[in-house]
Amino acid sequence: MFLCAYLFLINLLTFILFGLDKAKASTHSWRIPEKTLLLLSFAAGFPGGWLAMLLFRHKIKDFSFLPYMILITLSWLIGIIVFLRLNS
Questions:
Q1: Are the beta carbons of 79 and 56 closer than 8 angstroms?
Q2: Gap between the terminal Cα atoms of the chain
Q3: Least enclosed by CB within 10 Å: which of 2, 5, 67, 78?
């Protein structure tokens, strides 16, 4: 139960912060640091991050950011596959 609540909240927070960063980028105001967005994605918020990136069209062409998101996603997917294979 705790895991489901954590995953929901971290993805919701990540999604919201990506959206806020997009809004701030369009008004040229203070931005949310990329490190924060990546840290939230690494903390299991990568689905929310990807959803926000696609929905808001934010950081899709940022070639200094995108490789990190791909690496985080692949790391999680590999980790999940290994975990499932070890526990089956």
A1: no
A2: 21
A3: 2
C-alpha angle 78/68/87, rounded to 5°? 15
The residue whose two tokens read 């903390």 is 43
Q: What is the pLDDT along the chain (88 residues), one digit of tens a residue?
A: 999 999 999 999 999 999 999 999 989 999 999 999 999 999 999 999 999 999 999 998 888 999 999 999 999 999 999 999 999 8
Distance (Å, rounded) from C-alpha 29 to C-alpha 6?
30
Query: Following CA atoms 56, 42, 74, 33 in sequence, which dihedral angle do they give, to the nearest 10 degrees?
Result: 50
